Amino acid sequence: MQRIRCFKSGWQLLKSSCEGATKLVNTSSSSTSRNYSHLPPQGPCSFGLLFDIDGVLVRGRTPIPAAKQCFRNLVDSNGKYKVPVVFVTNAGNCMRQTKAEHLSHMLEVEVSPDQVMLSHSPLRMFTQFHKMCVLVSGQGPVEEVAYNLGFENVVTIDMVREAYPVLDVVDHNRRPKDSIPPTKGLQSIDAVILFGEPIRWETNLQLIIDVLLTSGRPDNNWNSVQYPHIPVLACNMDLLWMAEAKNPRFGHGMFLVCLENLYKKVTGYELKYEALIGKPSVVTYNYAELLIRQQAERLGWATPVKRLYAIGDNPMADIYGANLYNRYLQMSHHTKAQMQAKSGGGGVDPLHVDDTPKMTSAELGGALSSYGTANDLPEGCSSILVCTGVYSRDQQELPSDPAQTVTEQRIFHGHRDFRFDPSLTQPSFVVHDVKEAVELVFKQEGCSLE
Prior knowledge:
Elements: H1 13-20, E1 47-51, E2 58-59, E3 62-63, H2 65-74, E4 85-88, H3 96-107, E5 116-117, E6 133-137, H4 142-149, E7 153-156, H5 157-163, E8 191-194, H6 201-213, E9 232-235, E10 240-241, E11 249-250, H7 252-267, E12 275-277, H8 282-298, E13 307-312, H9 315-342, H10 361-364, E14 380-386, H11 405-410, E15 429-431, H12 434-445
Parallel strand pairs: 1-4, 1-13, 4-5, 6-7, 6-8, 8-9, 9-12, 13-14, 14-15
Antiparallel strand pairs: 2-3, 10-11
Helix pairs in contact: 1-9, 2-12, 6-7
């Protein structure tokens, strides 16, 4: 069971999805696909596509050959998308506009910022933190990103270094020379936001530990008795990701492993997260589904989006997350049916029943205030694994039996606070590349790509 200490807000949906998912019965699966053939063709398209980027569309800066052709097929002669499309990536070192421009250039189709979801995008909804003084860690324009998300009082790692010159001393070349500069001081830090892996890990690890052990005042003495520490919110839990190299590279999940273990080594306590955001969290897929629904409205669809298809290359992020969200959807519809039966057919929102958190529009906040009830939720979310990134048929095999957990537990790449469940890493379908994935979806749905 997950150990995430969710804050009291609309985003308690994260806790709901993880706890409620255990109440569902797993569907049977094979090593290559689950049987979704019972879904009948729907005539007019009624589905949306969620695309991972690294390992699905690109390898580092190099486009995967099938990606351009795939997106030529997804738009009509006027450049209009045939179905709603959202790019869901755990990257977070840039602005949405920048990523949209990059994708437009690479895929040779128009990509709007509204179609791009970075790992930190759901932080727009975390309004209870927006007025706090927050320390941000990562690389790229992290300060600009934080302000764009709604945070009003932002401190960077470099600001902490400059304010307290004697804290960052691992690199002898960065230590103060001759005389020690005076301490400038900063206002007390209220929360820590981890956007992504930094460039200088030793600096960020040291200063974040300093902030946590001093309750946001790194000029004070460490005090591990003050526990729990100030809130920590982390985006992107990917242990590994795929670039141009033949083998995967360390991701932000690896940085989190270091931070968690350092904190426990020093204090004896577990590092606690106020929230974990990005794939595979259900919060991320909820937000992505909202963007899909908004696109469907802009495309003029009169009917709701009934199904989602998530295409990714990482079994532990893309596939686990899509399957976890599918469980949440099934749980929601199942609970709704049960409550309707008990109430004689009256409409009951399963997000407001006793075994799930109660959420109001005010708690959901921002764009999610119009998220709607469970009546609006899709019927399901299917996961499609491509072999052009982290996962490769040549290097690894998916376990044919989800009960084979002994070996899998030894190489569990998921985050510490996520349940180990081999069935969640089992994709609905396995295909070679993104083009084949999209063709499979349209065939499955009885829609034409022509």
